[in-house]
Amino acid sequence: MSGTHTGVPSVLAHELPRPVPIDELEACPVGELFRRLGDKWSMLLLILLGGRPHRYNELHRAIEGISQRMLTRTLRALETDGLVRREVHPTVPPGVEYSLTPLGRTLLEPVSALADWAVRHEADIREARFRHTGA
């Protein structure tokens, strides 16, 4: 029976080979996406840009603790992946605005679902951690 009929997403319905070959794991598009979105800043940037386009300095001010270097690096990576669009406005000084691409917008629903899940299960996770560590 396919994953769509069991309620399990199709990508999760297939059993992984044992052992999982590391070269396949590193080249897996799912793993690549999770590594990108699982970094410290990408998810936050996607959420901010999901609301509206932002100028670079707006993003820098909105995210406490991110360096200019890391903001630039993360935005470039998201742009390379086709999730973020960088638009330069011909003003003096030049204005740069970042927005989600149509592809980037398709991530908002699953990201929102994941965030909702985390909020719903926050107490359960804290309790499990407490039981496990005793702290």
From TrEMBL:
UniProt key word DNA-binding: yes
PROSITE patterns: HTH_HXLR
Name of this protein: Helix-turn-helix transcriptional regulator
Domain HTH hxlR-type: 28-126
Keywords attached to this entry: DNA-binding, Transcription, Transcription regulation
Keyword DNA-binding: yes
Annotated InterPro entries: HTH_HxlR, WH-like_DNA-bd_sf, WH_DNA-bd_sf
